[in-house]
Amino acid sequence: MYPTKVDRQQNFKALKKVKKQNLPVKICTVCNRPFTWRKKWKKNWDEVKYCSKRCSKKQMMCCSLR
Ligand SMILES: [Zn+2]
């Protein structure tokens, strides 16, 4: 009994899924939606508060209006 090629592919897919689920998640302070860790935030993940540039801009605009 040897594992088939399909079996191996399925195993690989399952591993990938688990890895993705283990990524840290934060809630965007502007749109209140969860966003997952991205490579570009590797260095400053602790400081990341917004899911996108758009949201960070929105927050800046909101603050400058006050
Ligand atoms: Zn957002």
Question: Rg, please?
Answer: 19 Å
User: How much of the residues is beta strand, in percent?
Assistant: 5-15%
Secondary structure class reads: mainly alpha
Which sequence of strands runs across the widest sheet? Answer: 1-2
Biggest pleated sheet:
2 strands, antiparallel
Low-confidence stretches: none
Name the bound molecules.
Answer: zinc ion
- Specify the overall morphology: rod-shaped
H/E series: HEEH
Rounded average pLDDT = 83
DSSP, total strands: 2
Fraction of residues in helices?
40-55%
The helix tally amounts to: 2
N-to-C CA distance: 70 Å
Topology, element by element:
Layout: H1 5-21, E1 25-27, E2 34-36, H2 53-65
Antiparallel strand pairs: 1-2
The structure holds zinc ion.
What do these coordinates show?
The chain has two helices and two strands; from the N terminus they run αββα. With 66 residues, the chain is mainly α. It has a domain at 24-66. A two-stranded antiparallel sheet has the order 1-2. A hairpin with a 6-residue loop joins strand 1 and strand 2 (34-36). The longest helix is centred in the first third of the chain and has 17 residues, at 5-21. The radius of gyration is 19 Å and the shape is rod-shaped. The chain starts with a helix and ends with a helix. The mean pLDDT is 83. Bound molecules: zinc ion. The site of zinc ion (ZN) has 8 residues, from loops.
